[in-house]
Amino acid sequence: MNMQSIRNIILKSHYDREDLVHLLQLRDPEKAELLEHASGIRKKYAGDQIYFRGLIEFSNICRKNCLYCGIRSAHKGLKRYNLNDEEVLETARYALDCNYGSIVLQSGELESKHFTGRVNGLLNKIHQHTGGRLRITLSCGEQNRETCLRWFESGAHRYLLRIEASNPELYGRLHPGDQKHLYSRRLECLYDLKDIGYQTGTGVMIGLPFQTIADLADDLLFMKQYDVDMVGMGPYLEHENTPFYHLRNLLPGHFERFQLTLKMIALLRIMMKDINIAATTATQTIDPSGRELAVDAGANVIMPNITPVKYRQYYSLYNGKPFINETFPDLEQSSDFPGIKLNNQIAYGEWGDSIHYLKKQGS
Ligand code: 5AD
Ligand code: SF4
Asked: Is the whole-model pTM more than 0.85?
């Protein structure tokens, strides 16, 4: 296909599955053109600025056993931790000191009364201690509707729950085939969250074992159809203490997964112009300036990890997670990256709600 006809596809107002499969395989210079187009759309429809969310990984205890994840419950050698309430509050205050408008409370998945009650208490305490100045996003796995509602009423207005893979068959191959890991349950939870009124976020991993380009095209169509408000997607990265580690030689290389991630971000930005899209930590694991490059491909959110340093090494989803030993939040380093002046574009002190969500609320 010549350059002009590729340009015509990039500029289409609506992509079908075939277009997406084609565009996901672009190489430079056409790939660069796609990314540039997406970056322009981000600035026009999602604002000129980048929003920060301070990420607090408050516990790595998880009841699940996803085959790709380094903190799965079967990883017995891993030290498990749980920040106490005071540590979480201190970290939330730190986010305010940094002038971040928003935080994400992330953990493994637990469904005990103790856990759900504790998260509820944390939401109340954080709002009290910070005068309601922080938007709080939760990322604590699948919960029943009652719990989701309770947390919403206690002031969690956003929720992240990645679908991981929208193809049920692929989802089945990524997870144990038991009642704890049901695709149907995950989908149900995503629809509950939206119905309750959360700004909902989902996402997928890119470059997974058994995943095809057509699966990724379908992932993009899934997010559009679900009408998502926020998305976080990043490359799949191996972890040596997982069942998937032995498949590593069958996978595309890290660079390839990274390039595919940039194209996924760009295509989603073109398809859903006013949503929030995160430049994830996993992109930075492959390339030190990965998050900045993701911003250039259409992302508009960065989640600096502000988890107290002594715990960071234990939230080990995959090998090579950056900045686990630093004594400062990771941000200072990454924004030093020459040539990309993210600093000039950062919306300090702003909540940065999804414009897509706000428009739906107003309509
Ligand atoms: N590589 C990349 N991302 C991973 N996650 C879990 N394990 C891995 C891995 N090995 C992602 C999942 C999950 C999020 C918290 O981390 O998508 O939803
Ligand atoms: Fe637990 Fe999430 Fe890891 Fe699955 S991906 S094992 S639910 S932390």
From this structure: yes
